[in-house]
Amino acid sequence: MPPTWTISELAREFDITPRTIRFYEDQGIVSPAREGRNRVYSPRDRTRLKLALRGKRLGLPLAQIRSLIDMYDGPGDSTLQLRQYLAVLAQHRAALEQQRRDIDDTLNEIAEQERQCQAALDQQS
Prior knowledge:
Elements: H1 7-14, H2 18-26, E1 33-35, E2 38-40, H3 43-58, H4 62-71, H5 79-124
Antiparallel strand pairs: 1-2
């Protein structure tokens, strides 16, 4: 019989709250079996949760996370999944690099405004 986990065990393992796991259940990312009132998570659920948390750490939107995870339930050939994942990562990297450039531009503008304000204060002294 394959191993199973309770919600508390997974929450502890991944350092998240049970509410976070229930959120992913509500989103259809994990679908635990029930034993009475308790949720029982399979190895598949554990893997899907781990992938969802990785996607979240990368800053991917939930819809994209779900799409990528669902690919792993497809046929055994992972070539398409890996290519699609690379495309998603490249797109996300480009967006993050643009955000970095925008932040750098904004920080430079703030620094210039600070210099101008300080110069104006110095002239008033």
